[in-house]
Amino acid sequence: MFSGAQICLYPMTDDFVGVILGAIDALEPYRPSFRIETDDVSTLIVGPPEQLFPAMRDLFLAAANHGIHCVLAATVSRGCPGEPDDPICTPIGHVVHDKPLDDRIAAAIAQVVDAPKTGQIVAAQFSLYPLGGGHHMDEIYGCIEFLKKSGVFDRSKNFCTKLRGDAGAVFATLSEAFLRFGALNGHVAIDLKVSANSPSAV
Amino acid sequence: MFSGAQICLYPMTDDFVGVILGAIDALEPYRPSFRIETDDVSTLIVGPPEQLFPAMRDLFLAAANHGIHCVLAATVSRGCPGEPDDPICTPIGHVVHDKPLDDRIAAAIAQVVDAPKTGQIVAAQFSLYPLGGGHHMDEIYGCIEFLKKSGVFDRSKNFCTKLRGDAGAVFATLSEAFLRFGALNGHVAIDLKVSANSPSAV
Questions:
Q1: Which of A3, A35, A191, B166 is least enclosed by beta carbons within 10 angstroms?
Q2: Chain B interface, best mutation among A13, A19, A75, A128, by max B CB count within 10 A
Q3: Contact A83, A185 (CB under 8 A)
Q4: CB-CB under 8 Å, A131 with B6
Q5: Would the CB atoms of B162 and A127 count as touching at under 8 Å?
Q6: pLDDT bracket for residue B92 (50, 70, 90)
């Protein structure tokens, strides 16, 4: 299954080039399993779906740990039918869809509880789009139930859901929502923003 | 039909707060017809679908005209079934769906040709998601045909399409893609980034 993301990093500082170039080093451990391409608008990462959110978390933390206000915006996708299937995208880990919904919700919550603590509080806002056929509304409602029990649910907003908490738990929650719900081979896309160190955060 | 956007503005400068607060004045002409709410992650605008992209254009240009690198990221939606229908969202203008696809492509191109020139070159990257049932693939292919003839088509990328050109033509192209294709009352969402003054733009 083809999976990947177009990632943008926005450090709100005069030295945004330096912050971005410094943060990109955080992707080094992922390079062996990812294809990575950059232009003036975004960086494409294509690789195993279960490593997408850990890679984005590490990139974002490397920028945010300067204490400056910065945002990561990403378009994340799995199962896009217009994309060539790629062996490097095959999931290799713990994610299985052959369990009942309640079991998957419990497993997703367990992953979030076990997520590493980073010490960086973030706000995340995202929309999850199940595209094409084959997605049951049960899966979407199951995902919403998981989000509300994730421990980092902030609130529902128009067009999106907002999370807030430690970056470890927030990125783990996003990853579980992306991997564990919706049709196994279905097309799922996420429109994501993650914000740290905002002067207007409450 | 409920329509609106969650808008984020990212000026890559130490004075990002000043740039954002200054740019928000550009939304004043739209306030009578919009509901506007802001938190630490985004600003919600709800109003007539045909005014969404002009409002975003004016906001973005007010920030970009400082010459600094800045990005507008938006989650744009029309026809979302989970949202309350709102009279202020009723389209009031020129957009009609009761024409054959070829006529609508020609009309969309004419709108882009007539778009005001702004003198600001921008790159835009977006994904258009037709959600739920009722969208014919003919509409999507028609939209792609329009984009390729818009005069600002840059290239297809993984998960998205990239435009480049004067901000007037680029925002007009995005607006036409959003308004004129897909089912009339269908749910359409756009994940959008627009970038100006990037030091790595080619």
A1: A35
A2: A75
A3: no
A4: no
A5: no
A6: very low
Provide the ipTM.
0.92
pLDDT of residue B198: 96
Domains of chain A in start order, with CATH, are 3-196 (3.30.70.930)
Q: pLDDT tens digit string along A6-43?
A: 999 999 999 999 999 999 999 999 999 999 999 999 99
- Alpha carbon B1 to chain centroid, angstroms: 17
Shortest CA distance from B68: residue in chain A = A14
For residue B189, list chain A residues with Cβ-Cβ distance below 8 A: 127, 129, 159, 191
Residue B3 has which token pair? 């329509």
Note whether B7 and B74 are within 8 A (CB). yes
Please say if the pLDDT value at position A192 is more than 60: yes
